[in-house]
Here is the input.
Amino acid sequence: MTRAARSQPLGGRTLVLWIAGAALAFLALFYAITLVLRQMPDPIGPRADLFVEGARITLQLTVVSGLIGLIIGVIAGIQKTSSVWLVRAPASAFIWLIRGTPLLIQILFVYNALPPILKSIGLNVQLNEFWSAVIALALNVGAYNAEVIRAGILAIPRGQTEAARSLGLSGGQTMRTVVLPQALRIVVPPLVNNLVALLKDSSLASAIALLELSLAGQRVSSESFMPVPVLTTVGAVYLALTTVMTLFTDQLERRVKIASR
Here is the structure.
């Protein structure tokens, strides 16, 4: 890669190429995992497709929850920096509630308790295992993202906000065009850490019988009574997923740093 290519600023085209590259890398990873697992002896080889299906659902769960969690984090993070108490209080209560309770309880609550609560107020919403896990994981990571984004917003010098307001920008325009773009660049590393942690935390979705990677391993282990090769395989697949994800998020971090110079 040439020096000019390395110094290419982060833009829409670069972001699209990054997403396409990550998608291709994961497709290649799943292909490689399938080939390797099918060559392994019992109990792994005959059940290789079950492990791959579990890994695919784990990745889908992470990506969908991560995107929704980022949106929740941005909204709650901005609310937390508001000088108006009525705007700040709901975000503070949400973060306090989510950070103070275990993720497993949140998943079980969304799956078992949320539908009856919604029904009692006239909303007949049916949530399957996947979307129950998505809601719980998105809310959880959204709370942590909110604190990260709040810190990023507070790191922007106040003089920039005052200068933007003196040029006639409204508070919303100042936040959207001046403060938030800079804050998001600052907080990319901790947001990436939250995403990688989310991939591992998604294993708790096995508690509501969602067939992700951990539950696939539990089923094979229960059928074969051979926990050592099964758990070793599950751990190795998780490691492969986090390694590829970290590789591409590191690339994104480097691009953001270049674009910030």
Q: What stands out?
A: The two ends are 20 Å apart (CA to CA). Residues 227-260 form the longest helix (34 residues).
